[in-house]
Design a protein that fits this description.
By secondary structure, the protein is an alpha+beta fold. It has helices at about 30-40, 60-90, 95-120, 150-170, 180-210, 220-240, 255-275; strands at about 5-10, 15-20, 25-30, 40-45, 50-55, 125, 135. The chain has a five-stranded antiparallel β-sheet with strand order 1-2-3-4-5. Strands 6-7 form a two-stranded antiparallel ribbon. Strand 4 (about 40-45) and strand 5 form a beta hairpin.
Length: about 280
């Protein structure tokens, strides 16, 4: 007896949604984000007109709830600290070391949020194609290498971006740098980190929209991705405006750099708040 018929959807080489006929009749639909974030899979009985959702086991759900709350809280605090650092810089109420310290503390929370997001993907319940339409929880892992999965690739790129930002934030404590050293040690990692954030957001859109352009006003997951991608775009604008001109030794536009950092960081905090409601 052959495997039940399957229909795969996704972006390029990535599968983000899989539909198959159940052995006992009816169909099951595995959606990448729904399964890894909420621990759910859709099942439609034979002859039925509406789908019901089956969830992972309680061990898997508890794990997902803890990871989701930890990642969301880390992004909320990290974004708030970045916004505070930008506010201090714009108002001139603290020196360069004070601003760098606030940013660095925020960066640590972004590192935490990025790694815990990776753990969410690594330890998410897995579907069984051709099976009974349920999710299976495997043993705990601290790491995996799964570049064929768009969700893994998205959060891995995000985590890599937070690590590159850490280099930028550490270098910002250095004093007496020349213009060339400032652009090489601080500005360049900032640009690279922002680019990685944007790539991660693009991959998240590919996952939730299954490789197509889409606007899903009623989808909380879509809004989380959209708000975070807006934050990433504003961070990139901030980085571009923070380039130090070799001829003058001043930033291209310090006001734009500070304000776009503040608003972009607030987007990440808002995304974290929304993520608290995308729980299993």
């Amino acid at each position: 007896m052959g495997q039940p018929e399957q229909r795969a959807e996704g972006a390029g080489p990535f599968t983000t949604r899989l539909t198959w006929h159940l052995p006992g009749g009816g169909t099951a639909v595995w959606d990448s984000r729904l399964a890894r974030r909420r621990g759910l899979i859709a099942v439609r009985p034979e002859g039925g007109t509406t789908s019901r959702h089956t969830s992972a086991d309680e061990v898997g759900l508890r794990r997902l709830r803890r990871l989701n709350a930890t990642a969301a809280t880390a992004f909320i605090i990290g974004g708030a600290l970045f916004a505070a650092g930008a506010g201090v810089a714009q108002l001139g109420s603290g020196d360069a070391t004070t601003c760098a310290s606030i940013y660095f503390a925020g960066g640590l929370f972004f590192n935490t949020g990025g790694y815990v997001s990776l753990l969410q993907v690594v330890n998410a319940p897995r579907h069984v194609p051709g099976g009974e339409g349920r999710l299976v929880t495997h043993g705990w892992r601290w790491w995996s290498y799964e570049p064929s999965r768009v969700d893994w690739l998205s959060v891995f790129v995000l985590f890599a971006g937070t690590l590159v930002f850490a280099v930028d934030l550490l270098d910002s404590f250095l004093q007496g740098l020349s213009v060339q050293q400032t652009n090489r040690l601080i500005w360049a990692p900032d640009i690279i980190g922002c680019a990685l954030f944007l790539i991660s957001g693009h991959l998240s859109f590919a996952e939730i929209c299954h490789g197509r352009l889409c606007v899903r006003r009623r989808s909380l997951g879509w809004w989380i991705v959209a708000v975070n991608q807006l934050g990433s775009a504003l961070f990139m604008v901030s980085a571009l405006a923070a380039f130090t001109r070799p001829s003058t030794g001043s930033l291209i536009n310090e006001d734009i750099a500070n304000w776009t950092t503040l608003i972009g960081a607030s987007c990440f905090s808002l995304g974290g708040v929304l993520q608290l409601y995308e729980r299993p």
